[in-house]
């Protein structure tokens, strides 16, 4: 079978709707449209969608009872009479709800990587995965298929920055991810919350965003304010600690040299030590002290 390239070009490059059969280079049929028993089909272990709306699924089942399956699912053959789903999870589940015994299917040759890629592309284009499901799918593609950001972007037809923005969502606390999954917040809100470092603060901002229905701009402003306060709170403590330490050191050095000692430093602990003297005799005394 000729290898199709350019997954980013769309689902049509992977699963042609009108194609009934395709021949391998040796002449064998690689794709067939046929009826397969639902009981003989395993679900796709690479399915990126983890949640299906029950009401929507029931509506599809009702439609299938009336109209039948318009678009066949796609499977690969595991062994004689046993198949594994490549794409069409919703149609498969809805067909079971509709109490169908068989379902029309394309049979394709596909390895694990192609299975994952096909499932991802089909779901993104046909079922609108939520942002977290997309992020998890991208991460799985990178890990299971050993892809870097650039390669992954090429496969799914997205810019590298876009892919990276999705992957960063997985750094959010679980409850914030769930809120994004359930559309309690938008991806804009989530990206703003990612500007914080502390998960506890992230969760606090998330809850307030939902309860007060804050806009993305309001959340962005709040995050900037929180970060600025954190910087201001940390800086004085550091400077104060340094000043106290330097004052003690000044007193000890002044007692040791028998003259006034000045220590100047900035917040980065850079500075100088000054030991003033009023006569040659006092300078010699200071030098003698340094030699001891």
From TrEMBL:
UniProt xrefs under InterPro entries: Chromosome_partition/occlusion, HTH_ParB/Spo0J, ParB/RepB/Spo0J, ParB/Sulfiredoxin_sf, ParB_dimer_C, ParB_N
Sample GO molecular function, one term: DNA binding
Signal peptide: none
Residues in ParB-like N-terminal domain copies: 34-124
Chain residue ranges for the region called Disordered: 1-27
GO BP annotations, alphabetical order: chromosome segregation; positive regulation of sporulation resulting in formation of a cellular spore
Listed Basic and acidic residues bias regions: 16-27
Record-stated family: Belongs to the ParB family.
Protein name, as recorded: Chromosome partitioning protein ParB
């Amino acid at each position: 079978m000729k290898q199709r390239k350019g997954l980013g070009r769309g689902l049509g490059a992977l699963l042609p709707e009108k194609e009934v059969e395709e021949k391998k280079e040796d002449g064998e049929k690689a794709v067939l449209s046929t009826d397969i028993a639902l009981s003989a089909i395993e679900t796709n272990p690479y399915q990126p969608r983890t949640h299906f709306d029950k009401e929507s699924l029931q509506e599809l089942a009702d439609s299938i009872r009336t109209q039948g399956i318009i678009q066949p699912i796609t499977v690969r053959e595991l062994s004689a009479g046993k198949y594994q789903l490549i794409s069409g999870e919703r149609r498969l589940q809805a067909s079971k709800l509709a109490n169908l015994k068989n379902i029309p299917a394309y049979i394709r040759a596909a390895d694990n990587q192609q299975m994952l890629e096909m499932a991802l592309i089909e779901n993104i284009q046909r079922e609108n995965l939520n942002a977290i499901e997309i992020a998890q799918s991208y991460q799985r593609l990178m890990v299971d298929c050993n892809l870097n950001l650039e390669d992954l972007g090429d496969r799914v037809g997205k810019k590298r920055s876009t892919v990276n923005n999705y992957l960063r969502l997985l750094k959010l606390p679980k409850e914030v991810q769930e809120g994004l999954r359930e559309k309690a917040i938008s991806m804009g809100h989530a990206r703003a919350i990612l500007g914080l470092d502390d998960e506890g603060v992230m969760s606090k901002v998330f809850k307030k965003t939902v309860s007060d229905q804050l806009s993305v701009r309001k959340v962005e402003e709040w995050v900037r304010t929180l970060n600025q306060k954190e910087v201001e709170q940390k800086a004085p403590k550091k400077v104060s600690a340094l000043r106290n330490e330097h004052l003690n050191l000044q007193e000890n050095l002044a007692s040791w040299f028998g003259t006034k000692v000045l220590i100047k430093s900035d917040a980065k602990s850079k500075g100088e030590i000054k030991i003033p003297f009023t006569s040659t005799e006092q300078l010699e005394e200071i030098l003698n002290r340094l030699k001891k």
